[in-house]
Amino acid sequence: MGNNDIGVRFAPLAMTADDFRHAGHALVDRIADRLAAIPQYPVTPDDSPAGVRAALGLGVPMPEHGSQPDALLAGADALFDHSLFNAHPRFFGYITAPPAPIGVLGDLLASALNPNVGSWVLSPAATEIEAETVRWIAQFIGFPAGDGLLVSGGNMANIVCLIAARAAAMPEARSTGVAARQPLVAYGSAETHTWIQKAADICGLGTNAVRWIPTDADLRMDVAALRRAIDDDVAAGLRPFLVVGTAGSVGTGAIDPLEEIAAVCHDKGVWFHVDGAYGGFAAALPDAPPDLRALARADSVAIDPHKWLYAPLEAGCALVRDGRALRAAFAYKPSYYHFDEAVNNYVERGPQNSRGFRALKVWLAFKHAGAAGYRRMIADDIALSRAMAAAVERDPELQLLTQSLSITTFRYVPPEVRSRLGDPDVERQIDALNTSLLDTLQRGGELFVSNAVIRGRYALRACIVNFHTSAADVEAVPGIVVRTARALAADLGTPRR
Hints:
The protein has 497 residues and is of the alpha/beta class. The chain folds into two domains: 115-356, Aspartate Aminotransferase, domain 2, CATH 3.40.640; 369-492, Aspartate Aminotransferase, domain 1 (Alpha-Beta Complex), CATH 3.90.1150. Helix content is 43%, strand content 12%. It has 17 helices and eleven strands. Strand 10 (450-454) and strand 11 form a beta hairpin. Helix 5 runs antiparallel to helix 15, helix 10 packs parallel to helix 11 and helix 15 (359-394) packs across helix 17 (471-492). It is globular, with a radius of gyration of 25 Å.
């Protein structure tokens, strides 16, 4: 079944120091050159899946014999040629930031060390750096965290916090399941990210356990409706265990009235969680709105360093006020683990046993930029978004819908139908035109925006979490959108009177 002669191992993956150095220098040089030249390239290529596979030489049989590293790493050029660049200054899609260069190098160093940050004994330096990174993140946003850990992103950070809330409300659920007694119910606004559905599903609650609370005219949770929903569920014999407040919704950047929600949760004895995956870092700004600063009253907060700390993917963070909560939710004591109880073992604080060294890239970037540097970059992103909103409002063919934090939403409205806005037939035609416009813009490569649905209307959505973006990039957006929309409308036939 194997080589009986193990005196000399056959190790084709091994490299000498000189070979590694040569291949690494060539790759780093290539990456540095391409990153510097990103503004000269389209935001994303207009590729098809078949075209990408052909360009990368995919779809071939598994190789029986290996190849030289230099030849393999030369394929980095093809990866750049057939990738979307979230480091492009005109990438405004979703909430994906450019990678801080120090973070890129940090990932290289973390991979070289390759610690398993599940137990202290396997990762002494990495464990202590993660603990400090979590502490810095909590301090930066003003949250009095008793504990926390880094995870893959916002979905997992929020799910970890929900599981902690479930364990606090029903400790026996870990052994008997959630159906042991009163069914648990959770609450979030109609704008809450879909992570809550995944969490309810994964944790055995079922998505019917989620109560979707309506929003006000500014797309913020209606707190009076929340209070009524909790009272109704208690009267029906159900167990409210979690309320989710959103600190920067994905669609529009709306911030729920967190101060009022905190008061309701305190009155009702319900765990208050804040999904701050996107907007939570803006709580660090001197002029942060009071509702955003009120995340400090939460029992837990989810926040993503790979968003507004510009860390390379993946890096999310789950924070809890009570330092015992994560162990109560995740710790087990199997015989094959021998842990020193006096040190930090992250396997007891989250769902992963094998954990990568995510913290290094975040820790290095904090030391590189400093808290003041981060506050300035976040404030600049918000200012640029407001400038984009102002530029949109100045254009007679665009309609501004919302602006909050660093998200601006708008749509193209042909001049000849502007007087008929609100007519259902016209609105459907405008929605269809903007749907096609989004696809055309994304394939065109000049800029990249995503979409939102605002009060039933299809919108273009531009989110700025990008330290490469300038005022000139923002000012260019209305012209590109209008030019593209006019050409598209001519082809499709615009709504007429």
